[in-house]
């Protein structure tokens, strides 16, 4: 796809492509096999300024917008999906905190992140509260000595145990959701199990437990009750536009690239299998669907950047369309890639079975695709 990029963006993307090809792809199979968090790859991202892309320039960032972030995450996800989730989690917290935090909070937060290769985690989901964020039960109560006491358990937290900061959403009263930036060393912050997942290995997905976890008053981002606005009006639309959709595109494109290569090399009946119409049509459909999804994602991010920080209903619908279409396409393309590889596609020695397992999660995270269709339908009917 031909897209307009500034010279700076072109240079960034060249670096990202080099990292993906030379550093991430050679490690992908091992990370998938061991399911160990790849600290070495995170260090590479940090050394190249990717983890702090959203920071202001004086803190080492470039204040990256949604369009650039989506392209970077897509490219990194071609190499390994968990690199996309690492980028998404860290930069999404930076972007969301910047929406409502006070200048003194931002200075402290940004200065800490700018030193070293530090990560951020987004803590919303609970055992009984997934797509229905209002159902969370984690509580935050004012402490007598000042600050807040947090209690609750967050599950499926990406970068659990390895993050520097955790953006925790909790109820300050039964009808208010507030956001707190909790440092890893906060008393009462503990970690539970790391999940043994079907795919997305190396992402360190697990429980974050808050047991009488004390945080200072300045851990509250914005005012009490601003957490829901951060989630519903601004944050989720902004994040979905360069989150699951971009990662799904990267995984899907990688699967298609492998399928094309295999179709050129594998021979049956004295012909390349790619010379058979059945295979060519499968490849053509995959390419068309990926390109259509990519065009929608690119246009959606352009509109998000244009409207940021207040996203219109029309663009919100496009965000849900992008997330839904791109992730459905990725699942279809990776499944077809396994089919094209035949029996080898089902064997772990070949990469497409990993890509198929990785693709599935993107139809679930950031609001299931069924919920996305509900959002689209409700906007259309207003």
Summarize the structure.
The chain is of the alpha+beta class and 382 residues long. It has helices at 7-34, 39-47, 66-79, 81-100, 103-114, 226-241, 244-265, 277-307, 313-341, 352-361, 369-380; strands at 120-123, 139-142, 148-158, 165-173, 176-183, 189-194, 205-215, 220-221, 267-268, 271-272.
Structural notes for this entry:
- Helix content is 53%, strand content 15%.
- It folds into 3 domains: 7-114, Butyryl-Coa Dehydrogenase, subunit A, domain 1, CATH 1.10.540.10; 120-225, Beta Barrel (Butyryl-CoA Dehydrogenase, subunit A, domain 2), CATH 2.40.110.10; 230-380, Butyryl-CoA Dehydrogenase, subunit A, domain 3 (Up-down Bundle).
- The chain has 11 helices and 10 strands.
- It starts with 6 loop residues before the first helix and ends with a helix.
- The protein is globular.
- Helix 4 runs antiparallel to helix 6 (226-241), helix 7 (244-265) packs parallel to helix 9 and helix 7 runs antiparallel to helix 10.
- The model has no long low-confidence stretch (mean pLDDT 94).
- The strands form 3 sheets. A 4-stranded mixed sheet has the order 1-4-5-8, covered by helices on one side. It has a 4-stranded antiparallel sheet with strand order 2-3-7-6, with helices on one face.
- The protein has 382 residues and is α+β, with helices and mostly antiparallel strands.
- Residues 121-213 form the Acyl-CoA oxidase/dehydrogenase middle domain.
- Its cofactor is FAD.
- Keywords: FAD, Flavoprotein, Oxidoreductase.
- Residues 8-116 form the Acyl-CoA dehydrogenase/oxidase N-terminal domain.
- This is Acyl-CoA dehydrogenase family protein.
């Amino acid at each position: 796809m031909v897209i307009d990029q500034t010279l700076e963006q072109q240079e960034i993307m060249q670096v990202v492509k080099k990292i993906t090809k030379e550093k991430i792809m050679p490690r992908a199979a091992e990370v998938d096999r061991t399911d160990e968090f790849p600290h070495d790859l995170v260090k590479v991202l940090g050394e190249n300024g990717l983890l702090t892309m959203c920071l202001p320039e004086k803190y080492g960032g470039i204040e990256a917008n949604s369009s650039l972030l989506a392209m970077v995450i897509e490219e990194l996800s071609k190499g390994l999906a968990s690199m996309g989730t690492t980028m998404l989690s860290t930069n999404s917290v930076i972007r969301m905190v910047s929406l409502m935090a006070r200048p003194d909070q931002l200075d402290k937060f940004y200065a800490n992140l700018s030193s070293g290769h530090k990560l951020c985690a987004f803590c919303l989901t609970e055992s009984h509260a997934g797509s229905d964020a209002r159902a969370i039960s984690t509580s935050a109560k004012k402490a007598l000595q000042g600050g807040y006491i947090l209690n609750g358990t967050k599950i499926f937290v990406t970068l659990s145990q390895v993050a520097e900061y955790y953006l925790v959403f909790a109820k300050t009263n039964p009808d208010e959701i507030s956001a707190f930036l909790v440092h890893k060393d906060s008393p009462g912050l503990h970690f539970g199990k790391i999940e043994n997942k079907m795919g997305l290995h190396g992402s360190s997905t697990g429980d974050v437990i808050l047991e009488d976890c004390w945080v200072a008053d300045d851990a509250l981002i914005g005012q009490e009750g601003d957490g829901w606005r951060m989630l519903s009006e601004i944050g989720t639309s902004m994040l979905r536009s360069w989150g699951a959709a971009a990662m799904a595109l990267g995984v899907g494109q990688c699967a298609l690239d492998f399928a094309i290569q295999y179709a050129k090399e594998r021979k049956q009946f004295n012909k390349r299998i790619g010379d058979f119409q059945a295979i060519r049509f499968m490849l053509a459909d995959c390419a068309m669907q990926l390109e259509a999804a990519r065009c929608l994602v690119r246009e959606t991010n352009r509109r998000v950047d244009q409207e940021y920080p207040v996203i219109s209903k029309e663009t919100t619908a496009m965000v849900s369309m992008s997330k839904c279409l791109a992730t459905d396409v990725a699942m279809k393309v990776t499944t077809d890639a396994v089919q094209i590889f035949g029996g080898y596609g089902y064997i772990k020695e070949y990469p497409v079975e990993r890509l198929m397992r990785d693709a599935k999660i993107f139809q679930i995270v950031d609001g299931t695709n069924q919920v996305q269709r509900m959002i689209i339908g409700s906007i259309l009917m207003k």
